[in-house]
Write a structure and sequence with these properties.
Distance between the termini: 65 Å
CATH topology of the largest domain: Neuraminidase
Number of domains: 3
CATH architecture of the largest domain: 6 Propeller
Strand order of the largest sheet: 1-2-3-4-6-5
Structural class: alpha+beta
Strand content: 25-35%
CATH superfamily of the largest domain: TolB, C-terminal domain
CATH class of the largest domain: Mainly Beta
Number of helices: 10
Shape: globular
Largest sheet: 6 strands, antiparallel
Length: about 750
């Protein structure tokens, strides 16, 4: 149970606020009322004998450490069944990961000073009797205080190294991809050289702004370490060679002691040896201290590549069940196994469904009166007695003209599929039982006198039901769709003009990719006519969006050598402007406009993950508004029509997880990680608002289903499945109101 603010623990420690949360408990900032100083309070809610022993061992390890670059534990509290608590130094300041986000890359001098300070701490730890291994060195666990002092924090994964046959852990085995050496994945036992590798990887990331290739992947010859100077040519050859040596795949190829590594770092800059503990860096600005950035020893951080922990099954295990000599199954292998099982389950479901329909069809064909009318109505070759037989479909998959849709439009031609079949029925028939129509009572819905969602009540989307992806237009009221494009190389990513008369899209499009190399932008009228190509640039153009004034189309392009946001004038399709100009390997994409067109929210890739940023429409005053760290990647932002919220997708960056739907205030960015919306879907992605802002359209996957188009209320209720085609339906775009000329 989370401790509330002002709770007095052990009649001494008063809770100020919570600094982090994880599966084992929380970390709090508190006041020691006896001494009048701030402290950090780490919680362990697991009260089993084994976890209690491990937690106490961590307390004993830290309490006996005395080093200027390490925090101290001053107390260990056991409160019966409530849990255990460690009282430790409160380390104020910013961690190295936050400094990297703030500055981009560190200077050589700062990297050397940080490396030397951590080497001093490691030399001290490794010289204990028996040696102590940290096993989780990464940017998030290096703290820099307001006076520039450097600390190594978070000993939640530390262990006492005794010999080659015995080791005592203080927690589950864990590894942080990119920072952990191969042996930490279970290929061999960890020893002091494990920490040397992790420190080398941390300095590599600090000097390059990029997390290095994973150690296990390198050990299996699935990846090679990119030379540091290739990522940052300003790094000296001697310093780069020292860091790369520390990251040797084979422990025997690394520096054998922390002292050796420190000498190499200092020697690379021709600096004289300094007194241990005297290495300092420039202090962080006072206004950049992250409120939640402290020794989060028990917390699963939301701001760092989360360690991949071996989760126990059944009863909480003893230490021997989580030791490094246990078999290791990589997250990728586990993901593939889950996907294999999911496919197998889906295939069985499809086969059983077909068998059921065949049985019911046979019964209904020979004895139709046996089945109820509602059952007969969903069997393809049987028609309810009160329903007319569908007329033959047009011979052309793409109509030459479409009806003019207005706000009161209630009909749309029946969906056609390529190749056309004279006796086919609409593929988008709603199957009973797949729609959840429960709407939260606190959500105000628009009047039923206007089309659902405002505008025209129509959604453009991409589908590969005819082979390659093409654009379709769906009318929600009649649940029918017509095909708009017949591009030889496919089409996807539709986006409406503000007046609802035109669409911009991309081609080629082979499927649901993240980046569409060599794609071009095209414009068509809402009826599929008037195809116009926008002059392509080298690399590819994608992620198009129309400016609210209708004068420009903004998009992501590779024409500058990396992903940046560009615009093109609608009146002059040869007039391009580059909006973002990021540093090397800092990429920008997926623009979304505020309603008044003055600002753009977009995704920026830094440190291997995407973050949500905001800027003026001309590219000035960029600022980061979502800070999820390197454990998560944030993408596909969308601005609400009322200008109050920004929604976006989030997924895990280092391990497999399905995408989450997040929201954040468009005006108040104090909640930097956003709020996760609870949606009972396996996948929800490419989410956009209806014109009136009451609904969200998205591509989603229900359990044992494929990708289809859904909508729901903006509050997350009333989920409705709009397409049921067995092929992929994706990239929905809600059509705004059609502007008519008198």
């Amino acid at each position: 149970m989370t401790l509330e603010k002002d709770t007095l623990l052990h009649n001494r420690y008063r809770i100020i606020d919570i600094l982090g949360q994880g599966g084992m408990g929380s970390v709090y900032r508190a006041i020691d009322e006896n001494l009048g100083v701030q402290i950090a309070l780490k919680e362990n809610l697991f009260t089993t004998d084994e976890y209690a022993r491990q937690f106490r061992l961590e307390a004993v390890i830290l309490a006996n450490l005395r080093h200027p670059n390490l925090p101290r534990v001053s107390d260990h509290i056991v409160l019966g069944d409530q849990g255990q608590y460690l009282v430790m130094d409160f380390i104020e300041g910013e961690d190295l990961r936050f400094r990297m986000e703030r500055l981009g890359m560190l200077t050589e001098d700062d990297a050397v000073h940080i490396g030397a300070a951590i080497c001093d701490a490691l030399a001290y730890l490794h010289s204990r009797k028996p040696p102590i291994l940290h096993r989780d060195i990464k940017p998030g666990n290096v703290k820099i205080t307001p006076d520039g002092h450097i600390f190594l924090v978070d000993f939640g994964l530390a262990k006492v190294y005794q010999n080659a046959s015995q080791a005592t852990t203080t927690g589950a085995r864990a590894m942080t991809p990119g920072y952990s050496p191969p042996e930490q994945y279970g290929t061999a036992r960890t020893d002091p050289r494990t920490d040397i590798y992790s420190l080398g990887a941390t300095l590599y990331a600090a000097l390059s702004g990029i997390i290095p290739e994973d150690g296990l992947a390198r050990a299996m010859d699935n990846a090679q370490l990119t030379p540091l100077r290739k990522r940052n040519s300003k790094v000296s050859r001697r310093l780069a060679a020292s860091i790369e040596k520390a990251m040797g795949v084979d422990p025997s190829d690394r520096f054998q002691t922390a002292e050796e590594f420190k000498k190499a770092l200092l020697g690379a800059k021709s600096k004289t040896q300094q007194i241990p503990g005297s290495y300092m860096v420039a202090p962080p600005p006072a206004d950049t201290f992250p409120a939640r950035e402290i020794d989060e020893a028990a917390a699963t951080p939301l701001k760092e590549k989360t360690p991949v922990r071996v989760a126990p099954k059944g009863p909480l295990p003893s230490a021997t069940t989580v030791e490094e000599d246990q078999p290791f199954i990589s997250p990728l292998k586990r993901q593939k196994e889950r996907e294999r099982k999911r496919r197998s389950t889906f295939i069985r479901f499809v086969v059983l469904t077909l068998l059921l329909f065949l049985v019911l069809g046979g019964v209904a064909y020979f004895t139709p009166g046996v089945l109820p009318a509602d059952i007969r109505g969903i069997i393809p070759f049987l028609v309810p007695t009160n329903t007319a037989t569908p007329s033959a479909t047009p011979t052309s998959p793409i109509p030459t003209s479409l009806p003019t849709f207005t706000a009161t439009s209630t009909s749309i031609p029946t969906a056609t599929k390529k190749p056309p079949t004279a006796t086919s029925v609409p593929t988008n028939t709603v199957i009973p039982g797949v729609v959840d129509t429960v709407v939260p009572t606190d959500t105000a819905l628009p009047s039923t006198s206007v089309p659902l969602g405002g505008g025209t009540g129509q959604i453009a989307f991409a589908s590969n039901r005819s082979g390659l992806p093409q654009l379709y237009l769906l009318d929600i009221a009649v649940n029918g769709a017509i095909q708009l494009t017949d591009m030889s190389n496919g089409a996807c990513q539709p986006a409406w003009s503000p007046d609802g008369s035109k669409l911009v899209f991309i081609s080629p499009c082979k499927g649901m990719d993240d980046i569409y190399y060599n794609a071009s932008l095209y414009i068509i009228n809402a009826d599929g006519t008037g195809l116009t190509q926008i002059a392509p640039g080298p690399g590819g153009d994608f992620d198009p969006v129309w400016s609210p004034d209708g004068e420009s189309i903004f998009f992501t392009s590779l024409r500058s050598g990396q992903m940046e946001i560009f615009s093109v004038s609608v009146d002059d399709l040869s007039k391009f402007s580059q909006i973002t100009k990021g540093a090397l390997r800092v990429e920008s994409r997926q623009p979304s406009f505020s309603r008044d067109g003055s600002q753009i929210v977009y995704a920026v890739k830094r440190f291997g993950v995407y973050q949500i940023w905001m800027m003026n429409a001309d590219g000035t005053e960029p600022q980061q508004i979502v800070r999820s760290g390197v454990a998560y990647t944030d993408y596909l932002p969308a601005w609400s029509p009322n200008g109050e919220l920004i929604i976006f997708n989030q997924r895990c960056a280092t391990v497999f997880c399905n995408p989450y739907l997040m929201s954040i205030s468009a005006t108040d960015h104090t909640l930097e990680q956003g709020t996760r919306m609870q949606v009972n879907l396996t996948i929800i992605q490419n989410v956009g608002y209806s014109p009136d802002g009451f609904y969200l359209a998205y591509e989603g996957v229900e359990e044992e289903s494929n990708v289809d188009i859904f909508y729901m209320t903006a509050a997350g209720g009333g989920r409705t499945r709009l397409t049921t085609d067995p092929e992929l339906d994706f990239h929905p775009a809600w059509r705004p109101s059609v502007t008519t000329t008198p």
